[in-house]
Each structure stands twice: as C-alpha cells, then as structure tokens.
Amino acid sequence: MAARKPSRKSATKKRPAKKRTASRRPGISRIDQPSTRTHGWFVRVGYHVRKDGVSAPRHTKFFGDAGHGGKTKALRMAEKFVASLAKVLKKKKK
Asked: What residues are paired with 57 via a beta bridge?
C-alpha cells in the first residue's frame, strides 16, 4: 500500500487567535517597564482631533502599582476613573 499524503489543511500552520482586550478594559493599558521601574495602568479616554490634525486623548492618568497598593488595586482605581469619566462625558452630551 502507498502512504497517504497529508491533507492541505493539516499541512498549513494555524495562526494563533488574537487576544481581545479592548472589550474588557477600553481605554486602559498595562505599562511594565523594568528599566525605569514603571509598573501600572495607563488610562486614555475621550479622543479628539487637535488643530494640527493629530488625534489625541482628552483625559489621561497613570495608576502606579506602588502608589495604589498593588497591581489589582491600581487596576480597580483605573476602572473607577474610567467609569466616573463616562458619567461626566455622558452628562455633557445631553
């Protein structure tokens, strides 16, 4: 008997699925930079186009791990900040 050739589907490599972080924490990014000892969560909310044509966030704030009692607490504070901004921005639209 002749050996079977592998099908094309099994011969091609599958790409790993992309992580979908935007839906979990919109506007919140993790910063870990050991060279400058910077560890924390960075919040950017309310993008707009400036006069020079560059898109930039209206509200930015950094929540450091050391200043907020750890990684989890800093994330919780960042999420509260985003929620409070969402309420303020929602009121301004009305």
From this structure: 47
pLDDT of residue 16: 74
Q: What is the DSSP letter of 32?
A: E
Beta bridge partners of 41: 30, 63
Task: Note the pTM of the prediction, 2 decimals.
Answer: 0.65
pLDDT at 42 over 70: yes
Q: DSSP letter for 23, please.
A: T
Predicted confidence at residue 87, as pLDDT, reads: 82
Place of tokens 């907020």: 68
Domains of the chain: which residue ranges?
Answer: 26-93
Residue 39 and residue 69 in contact, taking contact as beta carbons nearer than 8 Å: no
Say which DSSP state 54 is in: -
Residue written as tokens 């450091």?
Answer: 64
d(CA 32, CA 38): 6
